[in-house]
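Q: My labmate handed me this sequence with no annotations at all. I'd like to see what the chain might look like in three dimensions before we decide whether it's worth expressing. Could you predict it?
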Amino acid sequence: MKTPIDLNGFIQVAIIVRDIEKAAKEWCDLFGVPMPEIRVQEPGPRDGTTYRGRPGSYGLKLAVIDVRDRGFVIELHEPAGGESTFQEFLDKHGEGVHHLGFEVGEKRDAVIGELEEKGYTMRTVGYYPGSSWTIVDSEDKLGVNLNIKPKR
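A: Here is what I predict for the chain of 152 residues:
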């Protein structure tokens, strides 16, 4: 790639789970860190989010285990209704690593463009105040999806 993904931008491992409370407790015990808040997004439209080119509408439980002192975070995702990249993964693979996240800064559009040129599709694109996230459908080629973010 002309615009390679810098490994210094590695920021997250995202894991799909069936029981987020149990998984969060186990991860926190393993790393010796406090239990994070488990955020619940009720099923419904997700403003500014697309899934496979259509408006996103799903529910999700999310916990972010903060191990940034070790260089990254672990995101736990428990699908909670509707069609999403998270439910798709759970249905296809069961629990496991859904994506690795990379912060690429101002190179976000160039990286996404080059990935699309290489035949990767953008499975999910989402926006939130101050940033965005793009799940690149790369399971079949890389064994895991990618999350490309301009910044945290």
